[in-house]
């Protein structure tokens, strides 16, 4: 017999009586040969079922799904109420050409001063070169994309020869890079650059198609069953603007992990501390941007896979509203929690790449009814008034549930600075049923991932996955149809709570991660690592934006006592990218003095 739980209808829940429950993930930490043995036991029918059953029970998964009466109807994809247009924005036509949207985005930015980076003489702060810095250098005939390409090729070779190597890329072809850069150089010589992005170097995560490179999802074999014949739509839009693609960036295998560990191609190292993880699954994209090798990168985010590595590597990572950009041409194009979006060194670079790549699929326009995409009009005199009016929501007990108080203290300090500088008020909020939300997310993304991989799994390909991927799939394949439907019922409840909170605040603020970059165990390099406790800390504040499809952004705000980057996460209303970008720009400006140069950094523009 089990104790049946009966939940009140969500509208009847007394939020003021909710008590915060600290998250404790209970699962064995295994690595190296021990992980290999653990996977063997998991895949043995009887003992594996027993182990999975114990892990699920200790983490309350049956209790919250199978033993609970959830009165709400399922929400199988995010459903959003109509949203008001944000103030002081530039509205973009997603049916227009990417180059036209880029012009709109440029009009939103403050005037560009090319001397700003050169005149930064402070020993304690560090500035990245921006897309507009490169564009100015090209148009001033100081350098060419071909010159920059040669320096990037040299730097990538150097990164691979480091001890330990940084393995940033899975697929890299110097001749393809030279060819694309030469085409861009010719356009500048003829006086016909395609856009502000012409000659800008961008990396593509290995689960996004970028012809002629294969898409492996960081496996050793996936490209054999799924050949690439054209670019993903988002990549095609960037290519039409003149972007030069570096290659396919390293990642956690199939995106089923948040550290970036990958024995297949080597684990990408954090540019701030090479003995630590970058975070994942977009490990290569974040590390490439942080190390200065490219201005921006494209990643995917189904469970923090853009925001986690952006936070741990000290760069900016945007997760857009679900459906804002078509997923056509990506490995995760049939899920209900994933998006494709940019990582960049600065908020203005995020805005430029986002403007070029956005655009919902026709089916999502019918089903999701997205509001028109907007950007904050940062160059307007009214932008400051819009910033001052923003109300920030903070759930203090959740906000401070971190591995080190360095994180919560630094993020709290930024909120105080926002109030002092702009008058942005922080309002205390309560977000109930966080444990239910985490379970609903893991069941949703896990079931959808297992469904997509099942034909290959049944075909015997499971033995070619990494051991930590096989650990995850053993859990995911144990979820039933009733578990999945119950998770979607919980999705509707959680959506209600967040929409109620957004009646009182404009942006929800949290640390991006509950811990800074964890150490890479030496034993994990060959066989991998399964550490759900670390994953729990890294994903602590991440999940709502994925399960509910909300826009969110991670902005670097400083470092902990070990010099490791800390990120602040801003979560917005549905289709509310403009508000979080406006606030992110203000946060970035306030925190510039504390930004530090990574220990592994390639000053490409200066070298060129």
Portion in helices: 40-55%
Q: Provide the spatial order of strands within the biggest beta sheet.
A: 5-7-6-10-12-11-18-19-16-14-15
**What portion of the residues fall into strands of 2 or more residues?**
5-15%
Total beta-strand segments: 19
Biggest sheet: strands, sense, closure? 11 strands, mixed
Radius of gyration: 23 Å
Count of alpha/pi helices = 25
What separation lies between the terminal Cα atoms?
71 Å
Write down the oligomeric state.
Answer: single chain
Report the uncertain regions: none
Give average pLDDT, whole number. Answer: 96
**Structural class, from helix and strand content?**
alpha/beta
Principal-axis shape equals: globular
Give a description of the structure.
The model has no long low-confidence stretch (mean pLDDT 96). 56% of the residues are buried. The chain is globular, with a radius of gyration of 23 Å. It is built from 25 helices and 19 strands. It is an alpha/beta fold. Strands 5-7-6-10-12-11-18-19-16-14-15 form an 11-stranded mixed β-sheet, sandwiched between helices. InterPro entries: Amidase, Amidase_CS, Amidase_dom, AS_sf. Belongs to the amidase family.
Features:
globular; alpha/beta; 25 helices; eleven-stranded mixed beta sheet; 608 residues
Give a nutshell description of this structure:
With 608 residues, the protein is α/β, with parallel strands linked by helices. Helix content is 41%, strand content 13%. Residues 170-581 form the Amidase domain.
